[in-house]
Amino acid sequence: MIGILGLTRRTDPGLYVSGEHVFTGSTNVRAIQINGGVPVLIPAASVAEDAEAALSFCDGLLFPGGEDMTPWYYDEEPLPVIGPFRPEIDDAWLKAGRYALENKIPMLGICKGHQTLNVLMGGSLYQDLSLQDGERIQHLQKYNRTYLTHHVEVEEGTRLASLIGAGKHKTNSMHHQAVKKLGRGLKISARASDGIVEGIEDEEGLILGVQWHPEDLVDSAPAMNQLFADLAKRALGRQRLS
Asked: DSSP strand E in 106-212: where?
């Protein structure tokens, strides 16, 4: 059972189903389902109210993409370059991460989820890539999410390398924030050619994060399926130990 941490959106008054709705991208659901997991959407409000009740049945957690991370959680004030952020979502996701750490639930973070896991471990973020010195490649692609638009270099000897191989890989890219200070107990598993951190993981095997969107690449870059198969495998291993 893989819990997908949910986002919320509100439809305009007067529409057929107006009000607030919990959602995740359908590609998140499919990527888990075709790689050995049973996807379950977890509302942030449920985690905020009672993490044990919301998450106790989960064998693994997916932290998906979303809006910007609230800078308060890494001791910064919002700068003019930051995009929309949702403290109530971030508070719930961090609470879910703490619960997962305490209960040894394996996690996979994607884009905003990758950044959230870094902050969970005491790391920080660039609120916008313009704040990092040096020339930047394009990290916010301008067309279909299934397109491969830049390379990442995967470090040898990492869990990520064992899944998709060390060396250069083509990925998609849809972000303007990135890991700045690395969180405690984490190591970098991949970087872009401009030095941006594209992959993180821990030694214990609980945390794996990638800055790109592998859920949109399960057909155009089939090796990315291994990230979801690995989450299912780690979750199954935890289930057998329970």
From this structure: 107-110, 125-126, 150-154, 167-171, 178-179, 186-192, 197-202, 207-210
